[in-house]
Amino acid sequence: MSTAEFVVVANRLPVDRIFSADGEEQWRTSPGGLVAALEPVMQSVDGAWVGWAGQPDLEIEPFVFDGIRLMPIALSEQDVEEYYEGFANDTIWPLYHDVIAPPQYHREWWDAYVRVNRRFAEAAADTVERGGTVWVHDYQLQLVPQMLRELRGDVTIGYFHHIPFPAHGLYAQLPWRDQVLRGVLGADVIGFQRAQDATYFLTAVRRRLGFAVKGSSVAVVDDDGSERHVTARAFPISIDTAPYLELAARPDVRQRAAEIRASLGNPKKILLGVDRLDYTKGIRHRIKAFGELLDQGHLSVQDVCFVQVASPSRERVDAYMHLRDEIEVAVARINGTHDTMDHTAIRYLHQGYPREEMVALYLAADVMLVTALRDGMNLVAKEYVATRADNRGVLVLSEFTGAADELRQAVRVNPHDIEGVKEAIMTAVQMPEAEQSRRMRSLRKRVLENDVTAWSSSFLGALERARSEHVRPEAE
Ligand code: GDG
Q1: Ligand 1: which atom is nearest the Cα of residue 278?
Q2: Other CB atoms within 10 A of residue 469 CB
Q3: Ligand 1 centre distance from Cα of residue 378 (Å)
Q4: MF terms per GO, please (predicted)?
Q5: What CATH number should be reported for the domain holding residue 160?
Q6: pTM value?
Q7: Could you tell me if the ipTM is greater than 0.90?
Q8: Do 284 and 185 belong together in one domain?
Protein backbone atom coordinates (compact mmCIF):
# COMPACT_ATOMS: atom_id res chain seq x y z
CA MET A 1 0.00 0.00 0.00
CA SER A 2 1.11 3.56 -0.60
CA THR A 3 2.09 5.84 2.28
CA ALA A 4 -0.33 8.09 4.21
CA GLU A 5 -0.17 11.75 5.16
CA PHE A 6 -1.70 11.19 8.62
CA VAL A 7 -1.19 8.06 10.72
CA VAL A 8 -2.78 7.14 14.05
CA VAL A 9 -0.92 4.62 16.21
CA ALA A 10 -2.91 3.03 19.03
CA ASN A 11 -2.74 -0.31 20.82
CA ARG A 12 -6.05 -1.36 19.23
CA LEU A 13 -7.27 -0.94 15.69
CA PRO A 14 -10.64 0.84 15.55
CA VAL A 15 -12.37 -2.39 14.44
CA ASP A 16 -13.37 -5.71 16.00
CA ARG A 17 -13.15 -9.05 14.21
CA ILE A 18 -16.45 -10.91 14.27
CA PHE A 19 -17.84 -13.94 12.48
CA SER A 20 -21.17 -14.08 10.68
CA ALA A 21 -23.60 -16.98 11.21
CA ASP A 22 -22.04 -18.89 8.30
CA GLY A 23 -18.57 -18.52 9.81
CA GLU A 24 -17.35 -15.76 7.50
CA GLU A 25 -14.83 -13.26 8.93
CA GLN A 26 -16.13 -9.69 9.16
CA TRP A 27 -14.98 -6.42 10.67
CA ARG A 28 -17.11 -4.01 12.66
CA THR A 29 -16.20 -0.51 13.88
CA SER A 30 -15.49 -0.76 17.61
CA PRO A 31 -17.55 1.61 19.71
CA GLY A 32 -15.51 4.43 21.16
CA GLY A 33 -14.95 8.12 20.95
CA LEU A 34 -11.46 7.96 19.48
CA VAL A 35 -12.63 6.49 16.17
CA ALA A 36 -15.51 8.94 15.97
CA ALA A 37 -13.20 11.87 16.70
CA LEU A 38 -10.64 10.88 14.13
CA GLU A 39 -12.87 9.54 11.38
CA PRO A 40 -13.52 12.93 9.73
CA VAL A 41 -9.79 13.72 9.86
CA MET A 42 -8.90 10.29 8.50
CA GLN A 43 -11.37 10.63 5.61
CA SER A 44 -10.28 14.14 4.67
CA VAL A 45 -6.51 13.69 4.70
CA ASP A 46 -5.83 10.17 3.49
CA GLY A 47 -5.25 8.51 6.85
CA ALA A 48 -4.00 5.18 8.12
CA TRP A 49 -4.30 3.49 11.52
CA VAL A 50 -1.64 1.18 13.01
CA GLY A 51 -2.83 -1.15 15.80
CA TRP A 52 -3.48 -4.64 17.09
CA ALA A 53 -6.63 -6.50 16.00
CA GLY A 54 -7.27 -7.72 19.57
CA GLN A 55 -6.48 -11.44 19.21
CA PRO A 56 -3.12 -13.16 19.67
CA ASP A 57 -1.26 -14.84 16.83
CA LEU A 58 -3.31 -13.22 14.10
CA GLU A 59 -1.35 -12.26 10.99
CA ILE A 60 -3.48 -10.00 8.81
CA GLU A 61 -2.49 -8.06 5.72
CA PRO A 62 -3.26 -4.32 5.67
CA PHE A 63 -6.81 -3.60 4.49
CA VAL A 64 -9.19 -0.71 3.96
CA PHE A 65 -12.29 -0.41 6.15
CA ASP A 66 -14.76 2.48 5.87
CA GLY A 67 -12.22 4.52 3.95
CA ILE A 68 -9.45 4.11 6.57
CA ARG A 69 -6.33 2.11 5.83
CA LEU A 70 -5.74 -0.35 8.65
CA MET A 71 -2.24 -1.68 9.33
CA PRO A 72 -2.55 -4.64 11.74
CA ILE A 73 0.28 -5.39 14.18
CA ALA A 74 0.60 -9.07 15.11
CA LEU A 75 1.07 -9.92 18.80
CA SER A 76 1.95 -13.45 19.92
CA GLU A 77 0.38 -15.02 23.00
CA GLN A 78 3.63 -14.20 24.84
CA ASP A 79 3.53 -10.54 23.67
CA VAL A 80 -0.04 -10.25 24.95
CA GLU A 81 0.94 -11.69 28.35
CA GLU A 82 4.11 -9.66 28.81
CA TYR A 83 3.61 -6.39 26.93
CA TYR A 84 -0.17 -5.92 27.25
CA GLU A 85 -1.45 -7.75 30.34
CA GLY A 86 1.95 -7.47 32.01
CA PHE A 87 3.81 -4.20 31.52
CA ALA A 88 0.90 -2.06 30.26
CA ASN A 89 -1.86 -3.31 32.56
CA ASP A 90 -0.02 -4.63 35.61
CA THR A 91 2.94 -2.20 35.81
CA ILE A 92 2.06 1.15 34.19
CA TRP A 93 -1.71 1.12 34.82
CA PRO A 94 -1.52 0.67 38.63
CA LEU A 95 1.58 2.90 38.98
CA TYR A 96 -0.05 5.75 37.04
CA HIS A 97 -3.30 5.37 39.02
CA ASP A 98 -1.61 6.19 42.31
CA VAL A 99 -0.68 2.56 43.14
CA ILE A 100 -4.28 1.71 44.11
CA ALA A 101 -3.09 -1.83 43.34
CA PRO A 102 0.61 -2.68 43.69
CA PRO A 103 2.46 -2.39 40.36
CA GLN A 104 4.49 -5.46 39.34
CA TYR A 105 7.98 -4.77 38.05
CA HIS A 106 9.37 -7.57 35.88
CA ARG A 107 12.37 -7.19 33.59
CA GLU A 108 10.97 -9.64 31.00
CA TRP A 109 7.80 -7.52 30.78
CA TRP A 110 9.89 -4.42 30.16
CA ASP A 111 11.83 -6.24 27.43
CA ALA A 112 8.55 -7.21 25.77
CA TYR A 113 7.30 -3.62 26.05
CA VAL A 114 10.41 -2.34 24.26
CA ARG A 115 10.16 -5.07 21.62
CA VAL A 116 6.47 -4.46 20.88
CA ASN A 117 6.80 -0.65 20.95
CA ARG A 118 9.55 -1.01 18.34
CA ARG A 119 7.23 -3.09 16.16
CA PHE A 120 4.58 -0.33 16.29
CA ALA A 121 7.18 2.38 15.59
CA GLU A 122 8.55 0.50 12.58
CA ALA A 123 5.06 -0.03 11.17
CA ALA A 124 4.31 3.69 11.60
CA ALA A 125 7.62 4.60 9.93
CA ASP A 126 6.75 2.35 6.96
CA THR A 127 3.27 3.84 6.67
CA VAL A 128 3.73 7.61 6.93
CA GLU A 129 4.65 9.69 3.92
CA ARG A 130 7.59 12.12 3.83
CA GLY A 131 6.93 15.14 6.09
CA GLY A 132 3.66 13.54 7.32
CA THR A 133 2.09 13.49 10.79
CA VAL A 134 1.79 10.62 13.27
CA TRP A 135 -0.47 10.70 16.34
CA VAL A 136 0.47 8.07 18.95
CA HIS A 137 -2.04 7.12 21.68
CA ASP A 138 -1.66 6.10 25.26
CA TYR A 139 0.36 4.35 27.89
CA GLN A 140 0.87 1.10 25.98
CA LEU A 141 3.05 2.97 23.47
CA GLN A 142 5.10 5.50 25.43
CA LEU A 143 8.34 4.56 23.68
CA VAL A 144 6.97 4.89 20.15
CA PRO A 145 7.49 8.68 19.75
CA GLN A 146 11.25 8.49 20.30
CA MET A 147 11.68 5.25 18.33
CA LEU A 148 9.76 6.77 15.43
CA ARG A 149 11.77 10.00 15.56
CA GLU A 150 14.98 8.00 15.29
CA LEU A 151 13.62 6.20 12.22
CA ARG A 152 11.93 9.20 10.62
CA GLY A 153 13.27 12.65 11.59
CA ASP A 154 11.06 14.26 8.91
CA VAL A 155 7.76 13.40 10.60
CA THR A 156 5.74 15.55 13.06
CA ILE A 157 4.77 13.43 16.08
CA GLY A 158 1.96 13.87 18.61
CA TYR A 159 1.35 11.74 21.71
CA PHE A 160 -1.83 11.74 23.79
CA HIS A 161 -1.87 10.16 27.24
CA HIS A 162 -5.40 8.99 28.15
CA ILE A 163 -4.70 8.04 31.77
CA PRO A 164 -3.27 10.10 34.66
CA PHE A 165 0.42 10.84 35.01
CA PRO A 166 1.54 10.24 38.62
CA ALA A 167 3.26 12.56 41.08
CA HIS A 168 7.04 12.31 41.00
CA GLY A 169 7.30 10.46 44.31
CA LEU A 170 5.35 7.59 42.76
CA TYR A 171 6.71 7.82 39.24
CA ALA A 172 10.23 7.49 40.62
CA GLN A 173 9.45 3.85 41.54
CA LEU A 174 9.56 2.81 37.89
CA PRO A 175 12.88 1.06 37.24
CA TRP A 176 12.77 2.35 33.63
CA ARG A 177 11.61 5.87 34.53
CA ASP A 178 14.21 7.75 32.43
CA GLN A 179 13.73 5.59 29.34
CA VAL A 180 9.96 6.13 29.44
CA LEU A 181 10.33 9.92 29.75
CA ARG A 182 12.76 9.94 26.84
CA GLY A 183 10.34 7.79 24.84
CA VAL A 184 7.43 10.19 25.28
CA LEU A 185 9.64 13.24 24.66
CA GLY A 186 10.22 11.99 21.11
CA ALA A 187 6.91 13.73 20.33
CA ASP A 188 6.57 17.40 19.30
CA VAL A 189 3.30 17.82 21.23
CA ILE A 190 2.37 15.76 24.31
CA GLY A 191 -1.25 15.90 25.47
CA PHE A 192 -2.60 15.05 28.93
CA GLN A 193 -6.14 15.01 30.32
CA ARG A 194 -5.59 17.49 33.18
CA ALA A 195 -3.23 20.38 33.82
CA GLN A 196 -2.08 18.45 36.88
CA ASP A 197 -0.92 15.49 34.76
CA ALA A 198 1.13 17.82 32.56
CA THR A 199 2.65 19.45 35.65
CA TYR A 200 3.64 16.08 37.12
CA PHE A 201 5.17 15.01 33.80
CA LEU A 202 7.13 18.26 33.46
CA THR A 203 8.38 17.92 37.04
CA ALA A 204 9.62 14.40 36.31
CA VAL A 205 11.34 15.62 33.12
CA ARG A 206 13.08 18.46 34.97
CA ARG A 207 14.11 16.38 37.94
CA ARG A 208 15.14 13.20 36.18
CA LEU A 209 16.54 14.44 32.88
CA GLY A 210 17.53 17.99 33.87
CA PHE A 211 15.90 19.58 30.80
CA ALA A 212 14.86 23.23 31.08
CA VAL A 213 11.08 23.66 31.36
CA LYS A 214 9.39 27.00 30.69
CA GLY A 215 5.59 27.02 30.97
CA SER A 216 4.47 24.06 28.86
CA SER A 217 7.65 23.96 26.77
CA VAL A 218 10.60 21.60 27.35
CA ALA A 219 14.03 22.18 25.81
CA VAL A 220 14.92 18.59 24.96
CA VAL A 221 18.57 17.83 24.26
CA ASP A 222 18.84 14.84 21.92
CA ASP A 223 21.72 12.35 21.97
CA ASP A 224 23.53 14.22 19.18
CA GLY A 225 23.53 17.39 21.35
CA SER A 226 20.89 19.21 19.27
CA GLU A 227 18.05 21.00 21.06
CA ARG A 228 14.34 20.98 20.20
CA HIS A 229 11.23 22.31 21.89
CA VAL A 230 8.45 20.01 22.96
CA THR A 231 5.05 21.19 24.19
CA ALA A 232 3.37 19.25 27.03
CA ARG A 233 -0.03 20.45 28.21
CA ALA A 234 -3.65 19.51 28.90
CA PHE A 235 -6.13 18.70 26.11
CA PRO A 236 -9.14 17.28 28.01
CA ILE A 237 -10.84 14.59 25.92
CA SER A 238 -14.59 14.45 25.43
CA ILE A 239 -17.34 12.38 23.82
CA ASP A 240 -18.95 12.30 20.41
CA THR A 241 -22.19 13.93 21.59
CA ALA A 242 -24.34 13.36 18.45
CA PRO A 243 -25.13 9.65 18.90
CA TYR A 244 -25.98 10.20 22.58
CA LEU A 245 -28.36 13.05 21.77
CA GLU A 246 -29.98 11.03 18.98
CA LEU A 247 -30.42 7.89 21.06
CA ALA A 248 -31.74 9.85 24.03
CA ALA A 249 -34.45 11.35 21.82
CA ARG A 250 -35.48 8.06 20.16
CA PRO A 251 -38.95 6.83 21.25
CA ASP A 252 -37.88 3.16 21.49
CA VAL A 253 -34.93 4.06 23.75
CA ARG A 254 -37.18 6.22 25.96
CA GLN A 255 -39.68 3.37 26.09
CA ARG A 256 -36.89 1.01 27.12
CA ALA A 257 -35.92 3.40 29.96
CA ALA A 258 -39.51 3.21 31.24
CA GLU A 259 -39.42 -0.59 31.00
CA ILE A 260 -36.19 -0.70 33.02
CA ARG A 261 -37.81 1.39 35.77
CA ALA A 262 -40.89 -0.84 35.79
CA SER A 263 -38.82 -4.01 35.89
CA LEU A 264 -37.02 -2.71 38.99
CA GLY A 265 -40.38 -2.32 40.75
CA ASN A 266 -40.85 1.40 39.96
CA PRO A 267 -38.54 2.74 42.68
CA LYS A 268 -38.73 6.48 43.41
CA LYS A 269 -35.05 6.83 42.56
CA ILE A 270 -32.67 4.78 40.44
CA LEU A 271 -28.95 5.16 41.13
CA LEU A 272 -26.56 4.02 38.40
CA GLY A 273 -22.90 3.11 38.09
CA VAL A 274 -21.32 2.19 34.71
CA ASP A 275 -17.69 1.14 34.64
CA ARG A 276 -15.28 -1.38 33.29
CA LEU A 277 -14.74 -3.67 36.27
CA ASP A 278 -11.53 -1.93 37.35
CA TYR A 279 -10.03 -1.16 40.77
CA THR A 280 -9.52 2.47 39.76
CA LYS A 281 -13.26 3.09 39.43
CA GLY A 282 -14.15 3.02 43.16
CA ILE A 283 -17.00 0.51 42.67
CA ARG A 284 -16.41 -1.07 46.09
CA HIS A 285 -16.51 2.33 47.79
CA ARG A 286 -19.89 3.24 46.32
CA ILE A 287 -21.34 -0.18 47.14
CA LYS A 288 -20.13 0.17 50.73
CA ALA A 289 -21.65 3.64 51.08
CA PHE A 290 -24.98 2.50 49.61
CA GLY A 291 -25.04 -0.60 51.84
CA GLU A 292 -24.51 1.51 54.97
CA LEU A 293 -27.33 3.88 53.97
CA LEU A 294 -29.64 0.86 53.77
CA ASP A 295 -28.31 -0.64 57.04
CA GLN A 296 -28.89 2.65 58.84
CA GLY A 297 -32.38 3.09 57.45
CA HIS A 298 -31.64 6.30 55.51
CA LEU A 299 -32.72 4.57 52.30
CA SER A 300 -35.00 1.60 51.67
CA VAL A 301 -35.18 -0.85 48.77
CA GLN A 302 -38.81 0.12 48.19
CA ASP A 303 -37.71 3.65 47.34
CA VAL A 304 -34.24 3.29 45.83
CA CYS A 305 -32.51 0.76 43.56
CA PHE A 306 -28.85 0.91 42.64
CA VAL A 307 -27.96 -0.53 39.20
CA GLN A 308 -24.29 -1.29 38.68
CA VAL A 309 -23.06 -2.26 35.23
CA ALA A 310 -19.52 -3.61 35.59
CA SER A 311 -18.38 -4.60 32.12
CA PRO A 312 -15.82 -7.42 32.05
CA SER A 313 -12.24 -6.18 31.71
CA ARG A 314 -8.68 -7.61 31.82
CA GLU A 315 -10.01 -10.86 33.22
CA ARG A 316 -6.64 -12.64 33.11
CA VAL A 317 -4.88 -10.10 35.36
CA ASP A 318 -4.83 -11.23 39.03
CA ALA A 319 -5.83 -7.88 40.55
CA TYR A 320 -8.99 -7.88 38.40
CA MET A 321 -9.95 -11.40 39.43
CA HIS A 322 -9.63 -10.45 43.11
CA LEU A 323 -11.60 -7.26 42.64
CA ARG A 324 -14.43 -9.17 40.99
CA ASP A 325 -14.62 -11.58 43.93
CA GLU A 326 -14.65 -8.73 46.45
CA ILE A 327 -17.39 -6.84 44.65
CA GLU A 328 -19.54 -9.89 44.19
CA VAL A 329 -19.29 -10.85 47.87
CA ALA A 330 -20.20 -7.28 48.88
CA VAL A 331 -23.20 -7.15 46.52
CA ALA A 332 -24.46 -10.56 47.63
CA ARG A 333 -24.24 -9.55 51.33
CA ILE A 334 -26.20 -6.36 50.80
CA ASN A 335 -28.82 -8.00 48.60
CA GLY A 336 -29.10 -10.96 50.96
CA THR A 337 -29.82 -8.62 53.85
CA HIS A 338 -32.09 -6.07 52.17
CA ASP A 339 -33.85 -7.60 49.14
CA THR A 340 -37.55 -8.38 49.29
CA MET A 341 -39.49 -10.58 46.88
CA ASP A 342 -40.38 -7.43 44.90
CA HIS A 343 -37.34 -5.21 45.26
CA THR A 344 -33.60 -5.57 45.00
CA ALA A 345 -31.01 -3.30 46.60
CA ILE A 346 -28.32 -3.65 43.93
CA ARG A 347 -28.97 -4.92 40.41
CA TYR A 348 -25.42 -5.97 39.56
CA LEU A 349 -24.64 -6.77 35.91
CA HIS A 350 -21.23 -8.17 34.99
CA GLN A 351 -21.94 -7.79 31.29
CA GLY A 352 -21.38 -5.47 28.36
CA TYR A 353 -24.38 -3.88 26.62
CA PRO A 354 -25.09 -2.23 23.29
CA ARG A 355 -25.01 1.54 23.31
CA GLU A 356 -28.83 1.77 22.99
CA GLU A 357 -29.22 -0.07 26.29
CA MET A 358 -26.57 2.13 27.96
CA VAL A 359 -28.46 5.25 26.91
CA ALA A 360 -31.76 3.75 28.15
CA LEU A 361 -30.02 3.18 31.50
CA TYR A 362 -28.72 6.77 31.56
CA LEU A 363 -32.27 7.98 30.88
CA ALA A 364 -33.68 5.79 33.63
CA ALA A 365 -31.11 6.92 36.21
CA ASP A 366 -32.02 9.74 38.58
CA VAL A 367 -28.52 9.73 40.03
CA MET A 368 -25.27 8.79 38.28
CA LEU A 369 -22.48 7.68 40.61
CA VAL A 370 -18.91 8.21 39.36
CA THR A 371 -16.65 7.54 42.33
CA ALA A 372 -13.32 6.71 40.66
CA LEU A 373 -10.29 6.75 42.96
CA ARG A 374 -8.28 8.00 39.99
CA ASP A 375 -9.40 8.39 36.36
CA GLY A 376 -7.79 10.17 33.40
CA MET A 377 -11.08 11.75 32.34
CA ASN A 378 -14.14 9.46 32.79
CA LEU A 379 -16.35 9.58 29.74
CA VAL A 380 -19.32 7.97 31.48
CA ALA A 381 -19.89 11.23 33.41
CA LYS A 382 -20.01 13.17 30.14
CA GLU A 383 -22.26 10.61 28.44
CA TYR A 384 -24.79 10.76 31.27
CA VAL A 385 -24.91 14.54 31.11
CA ALA A 386 -25.28 14.54 27.31
CA THR A 387 -28.38 12.31 27.45
CA ARG A 388 -30.23 14.42 30.07
CA ALA A 389 -32.06 16.69 27.63
CA ASP A 390 -34.82 17.43 30.19
CA ASN A 391 -32.16 18.81 32.60
CA ARG A 392 -33.23 16.36 35.29
CA GLY A 393 -30.87 14.02 37.13
CA VAL A 394 -27.85 14.44 39.36
CA LEU A 395 -24.21 13.59 38.68
CA VAL A 396 -22.14 12.58 41.71
CA LEU A 397 -18.52 12.94 40.61
CA SER A 398 -15.22 12.06 42.21
CA GLU A 399 -12.74 14.90 42.45
CA PHE A 400 -10.04 12.44 41.33
CA THR A 401 -11.37 12.27 37.75
CA GLY A 402 -10.26 14.53 34.91
CA ALA A 403 -13.95 15.30 34.34
CA ALA A 404 -14.09 17.03 37.75
CA ASP A 405 -11.96 19.90 36.39
CA GLU A 406 -14.70 20.72 33.89
CA LEU A 407 -17.97 19.51 35.41
CA ARG A 408 -18.05 21.95 38.30
CA GLN A 409 -21.80 21.72 38.90
CA ALA A 410 -21.69 18.02 39.78
CA VAL A 411 -21.98 16.92 43.43
CA ARG A 412 -18.29 16.44 44.17
CA VAL A 413 -17.01 13.61 46.35
CA ASN A 414 -13.81 12.21 47.76
CA PRO A 415 -14.52 8.49 47.25
CA HIS A 416 -12.14 7.49 50.06
CA ASP A 417 -14.42 9.31 52.50
CA ILE A 418 -17.30 6.85 52.86
CA GLU A 419 -19.31 9.25 55.08
CA GLY A 420 -18.81 11.90 52.37
CA VAL A 421 -20.04 9.51 49.66
CA LYS A 422 -23.11 8.71 51.79
CA GLU A 423 -23.83 12.42 52.21
CA ALA A 424 -23.41 12.99 48.47
CA ILE A 425 -25.83 10.15 47.68
CA MET A 426 -28.41 11.61 50.10
CA THR A 427 -27.94 15.10 48.65
CA ALA A 428 -28.47 13.71 45.16
CA VAL A 429 -31.50 11.62 46.09
CA GLN A 430 -33.15 14.55 47.86
CA MET A 431 -32.15 17.34 45.47
CA PRO A 432 -35.13 19.53 44.45
CA GLU A 433 -35.92 19.58 40.73
CA ALA A 434 -35.11 23.27 40.37
CA GLU A 435 -31.58 22.70 41.64
CA GLN A 436 -31.13 19.59 39.47
CA SER A 437 -32.13 21.65 36.49
CA ARG A 438 -29.85 24.57 37.31
CA ARG A 439 -26.85 22.29 37.70
CA MET A 440 -27.62 20.03 34.74
CA ARG A 441 -28.06 22.97 32.40
CA SER A 442 -24.57 24.18 33.17
CA LEU A 443 -23.07 20.65 32.91
CA ARG A 444 -24.74 20.07 29.54
CA LYS A 445 -23.54 23.38 28.18
CA ARG A 446 -19.99 22.41 29.02
CA VAL A 447 -20.19 18.93 27.47
CA LEU A 448 -22.08 19.97 24.33
CA GLU A 449 -19.72 22.87 23.63
CA ASN A 450 -16.59 20.79 24.19
CA ASP A 451 -17.14 17.55 22.30
CA VAL A 452 -14.58 15.12 20.99
CA THR A 453 -14.24 16.97 17.69
CA ALA A 454 -13.24 20.12 19.58
CA TRP A 455 -10.66 18.01 21.41
CA SER A 456 -9.10 16.49 18.28
CA SER A 457 -9.12 19.83 16.45
CA SER A 458 -7.37 21.48 19.34
CA PHE A 459 -4.68 18.79 19.55
CA LEU A 460 -4.15 18.64 15.79
CA GLY A 461 -4.00 22.46 15.69
CA ALA A 462 -1.16 22.41 18.22
CA LEU A 463 0.58 19.74 16.18
CA GLU A 464 0.22 21.82 13.02
CA ARG A 465 1.77 24.81 14.80
CA ALA A 466 4.64 22.60 15.98
CA ARG A 467 5.21 21.48 12.40
CA SER A 468 5.42 25.01 11.05
CA GLU A 469 7.64 26.19 13.92
CA HIS A 470 10.19 23.40 13.62
CA VAL A 471 11.20 23.31 10.00
CA ARG A 472 13.13 20.08 9.78
CA PRO A 473 16.15 19.88 7.49
CA GLU A 474 14.94 16.50 6.14
CA ALA A 475 11.54 17.94 5.21
CA GLU A 476 12.85 20.95 3.31
C1 GDG B 1 -9.71 5.41 29.48
C2 GDG B 1 -9.32 6.21 30.73
C3 GDG B 1 -10.51 8.19 29.79
C4 GDG B 1 -18.52 0.75 29.50
N5 GDG B 1 -19.28 -0.36 29.64
C6 GDG B 1 -19.98 -0.47 28.49
C7 GDG B 1 -19.65 0.58 27.65
N8 GDG B 1 -18.74 1.32 28.29
C9 GDG B 1 -18.14 2.55 27.71
C10 GDG B 1 -18.60 3.80 28.40
C11 GDG B 1 -17.48 4.76 28.03
C12 GDG B 1 -16.26 3.85 27.97
O13 GDG B 1 -16.74 2.52 27.84
C14 GDG B 1 -15.44 3.95 29.25
O15 GDG B 1 -14.74 5.16 29.21
P16 GDG B 1 -14.18 5.81 30.54
O17 GDG B 1 -13.64 7.15 30.19
O18 GDG B 1 -15.29 5.88 31.54
O19 GDG B 1 -13.08 4.83 31.10
P20 GDG B 1 -11.84 3.89 30.53
O21 GDG B 1 -12.36 2.72 29.78
O22 GDG B 1 -11.03 3.56 31.73
O23 GDG B 1 -11.02 4.84 29.51
C24 GDG B 1 -10.38 7.27 31.01
C25 GDG B 1 -10.71 7.38 28.52
O26 GDG B 1 -9.70 6.37 28.37
C27 GDG B 1 -10.67 8.28 27.27
O28 GDG B 1 -9.50 9.03 27.20
O29 GDG B 1 -11.65 9.01 29.99
O30 GDG B 1 -10.02 8.04 32.14
O31 GDG B 1 -9.18 5.34 31.86
O32 GDG B 1 -17.66 5.30 26.76
O33 GDG B 1 -19.88 4.17 27.93
N34 GDG B 1 -20.19 0.78 26.43
C35 GDG B 1 -21.10 -0.14 26.01
N36 GDG B 1 -21.46 -1.22 26.78
C37 GDG B 1 -20.94 -1.41 28.01
O38 GDG B 1 -21.30 -2.39 28.69
N39 GDG B 1 -21.67 0.02 24.80
Answers
A1: 22
A2: 10
A3: 7
A4: alpha,alpha-trehalose-phosphate synthase (UDP-forming) activity
A5: 3.40.50.2000
A6: 0.96
A7: yes
A8: no
